[in-house]
Specification:
InterPro entries: sCache_2 (IPR033480)
CATH architecture: 2-Layer Sandwich
Mean pLDDT: 88
Helix content: 25-40%
Membrane topology: Multi-pass membrane protein
Pfam family, one: sCache_2
Low-confidence stretches: 3-20
Subcellular location: Cell membrane
Structural class: alpha+beta
Order of helices and strands: HHHEEEHEEE
Number of strands: 6
Protein name: Cache type 2 domain-containing protein
Largest sheet: 6 strands, antiparallel
Distance between the termini: 31 Å
CATH class: Alpha Beta
Length: 151
Amino acid sequence: MKLLATAAALSLALVAAPALANAPTEKDAIAMVERGVALVKAKGKDEMMKKINAKDADYVQGELYIDMRDLKTGIVLAHPYNPSIVGKDLTDVPDANGKKYRREIIDVAAAKGKGWVDYQYKNPTSGKIEPKTTYIQRVDDVVLEAGIYKK
């Protein structure tokens, strides 16, 4: 019985290890947002929204993805995994710990142009609420965001 439990634990570790090894990094989040900024500057925010909504592989890669909100109103303009929030102002809706992180995202974007914000969010891969850090950057009148889940 002990041998069976050890074998099961080893099998689980072998399955989980590649997923952790391939987990997106802060550099991946920054690179994705910078690609998005370049697209918005070249082709406009409507094209960026189309790419996000179509889950274009340059902007949506599993748990790493870009979403976009209006800088002035806070309204979500595009989200690849949660289209029900598009068109809504969730600026003052808190995360699971009560943090109004969307307000912080807008404040950082308005004041500094770019930066990082930490909060709790549902991971589309695991389906669980997990700690997340998101890189944000303002481009024109929108904010692009791409975050990674902290393991």
